[in-house]
Amino acid sequence: MIRSEKIKIEDLEFDYRVCGDKQNELVVFLHGFPETSIMWAELMPEIAALGFYCIAPDMRGYSKNACPKGVKNYTITRIGDDILSIAERLRGDKFHLVGHDWGAAIGWDITYRHPERILSWTSLSIPHSRAFGKALKEDKAQKKMSRYIGFFLLPVLPEIIIRRNDFKAFRKLWKRSPPEVQENYLSVFRRKQSLTAALNYYRANIRKGRKPIGDVQTPTLFVWGNRDFAIGAFGARMTENYVKGDYTYLEVDGGHWLVQSNFSEVKDAISQHLSKYRTLPDRS
């Protein structure tokens, strides 16, 4: 059963969902945009049943009391530090990491910069940042797919457009999610500061001259849908060039929202990956 709890990290208070026995090995799930930790609500009990302790935070900007003002507060490094601190407080030093969309972008960064902390890494939809960067430079299809990012970098206007007709554009993206999940998303994005904070993930990290991460050594699972509207095949298939540890690539017949559209395949792949790299026995 999933419980909703809160945790204070310095002057920020994060909401998070938790499932499983705290004595078991920790798995941290990172949501993307425009979603919250509830996107993992169906998957977490399945993983907990395998003998893992699962937590999914509403990340910086999405938690009501962890929503500082200012673009500078939403760099990947700051968000990653939040996740590392939450994990350490709740279970200990080492953990498995699973991320989708922006959660995956942050997860790649954490995994590269803190390999001693990450037992296994799973990215849904988002390739290694070097592979994606190369795709943006060389692949016409990816350049076209990523045009929306330039719009998100604008001040104020994106917030105005997104709020039109009570988030009609977002509702189209959430069409596979049940009503109670959509209501959770709306409860967050209807807060003015949270929508701006979510867009600040783009504004703080895109075109800022950030040094790309290097090769990842951690055991990695990457799942990509071949009908993804935001991520093309070029970057997805090139990711293997930047993972030097054990690497599993799964291409599925699906779009960007893989947890909703390809649940069984995602569940099975993550279950096998976590079980393969488990270091502690099931204590439940």
Describe the protein:
This protein is α/β, with parallel strands linked by helices and 284 residues long. The chain has one domain: 3-Layer(aba) Sandwich (Rossmann fold). It has helices at residues 43-48, 76-90, 102-113, 129-138, 140-145, 147-152, 157-162, 168-173, 179-189, 192-205, 233-238, 258-261, 263-276, and strands at 3-9, 12-19, 25-30, 52-57, 95-100, 118-124, 220-225, 247-252. It is built from 13 helices and eight strands. The two termini are 14 Å apart. It has an eight-stranded mixed sheet with strand order 1-2-4-3-5-6-7-8, with helices on both faces. Strand 1 and strand 2 (12-19) form a beta hairpin.
Task: Please sum up the structure shown.
InterPro entries: AB_hydrolase_1, AB_hydrolase_fold, Epox_hydrolase-like. This protein is α/β, with parallel strands linked by helices.
Low-confidence stretches: none
Number of strands: 8
Q: Strand order, biggest sheet?
A: 1-2-4-3-5-6-7-8
Question: What structural class do helix, strand and pairing data support?
Answer: alpha/beta
CATH A-level architecture: 3-Layer(aba) Sandwich
CATH class: Alpha Beta
- Alpha plus pi helix count: 13
CATH superfamily: Alpha/Beta hydrolase fold, catalytic domain
Might you state the CATH topology name? Answer: Rossmann fold
Main pleated sheet: 8 strands, mixed
Termini, distance in Å? 14 Å
Provide the succession of SSEs.
EEEHEHEHEHHHHHHHEHEHH
Mean pLDDT: 96
Percent helix range: 40-55%
Instruction: Choose one word for the global shape.
Output: globular
What's the gyration radius in Å?
Answer: 18 Å
GO molecular function: hydrolase activity
Domain AB hydrolase-1: 26-258
Keywords: Hydrolase
InterPro entries: AB_hydrolase_1, AB_hydrolase_fold, Epox_hydrolase-like
